[in-house]
Amino acid sequence: MRSSCKQLERNERRIAELKRPFIKIYEDNATGNLNDERYEMMSQNYEAEQKQLEAEVVALRQEIEVQERQNENIERFIRKADKHVGIEGIDPAMLRELIQAIYVEAPDKSSGKHRQKIHIEYDGIGFIPLEELAKKETA
Q1: What's the Cα-to-Cα distance from 28 to each of 21, 32, 44, rounded to whole Å?
Q2: pTM for this model (two decimals)
Q3: Distance CA 38, CA 109 (A)
Q4: Three-class HEC string of the chain
Q5: Phi-psi bin for 112: left (phi > 0), alpha (psi -120 to 50), beta?
Q6: How confident is the prediction along the chain (139 residues), in pLDDT tens digits per residue?
Q7: Which candidate, 51, 60, 55, 62, places its Cα nearest to that of 18?
Q8: Cβ pair 76, 124 in contact under 8 A
Q9: How far, in Å, CA of 132 to CA of 114, rounded?
Q10: Do 41 and 87 meet the contact criterion of CB atoms below 8 Å apart?
Q11: Is 126 left (phi over 0), alpha (psi -120 to 50) or beta?
């Protein structure tokens, strides 16, 4: 998120900076120091850059908003989970509070052993692959 915020700041700063050269070429054209053809080319370049930057600003703001919502959801989940630190078992109330859904795939016997995958969707944060959880426990 930090890089998105920095890029947003750079884009907004550049949009503000584009006003000066645009005014300068306008004045140069008005005084005859810049011919109409050159003025058109330069103004189109500045306008194209400005439109591109403005589109990026919109996308970056949306991305930052999504990331902020995800951070809020994760913080809310952590606050809920902190209440259950050191538990020995899972009770129904805890399941309802922390888990949105549990998906169990059909059994796979192709390897000669009965295997069944389970996917857990945590409330507010979505799916965390079991491999990721196992990595964090061993680290």
Answers
A1: 10, 6, 16
A2: 0.63
A3: 72
A4: CHHHHHHHHHHHHHHHHCHHHHHHHHHHHHHCCCCHHHHHHHHHHHHHHHHHHHHHHHHHHHHHHHHHHHHHHHHHHHHHHHCCCCCCCCCHHHHHHHEEEEEECCCECCCCCCECCEEEEECCCEECCHHHHHHHHHC
A5: left
A6: 788 899 999 999 999 999 899 899 989 999 999 899 999 999 999 999 999 999 999 999 999 999 999 899 888 888 888 887 777 777 888 888 888 888 899 988 888 888 888 888 888 888 877 777 666 556 5
A7: 51
A8: yes
A9: 23
A10: no
A11: left
Amino acid at 72: E
Which tokens in the block code for residue 135? Answer: 């990595």
The encoded tokens of residue 80 equal 């809920």
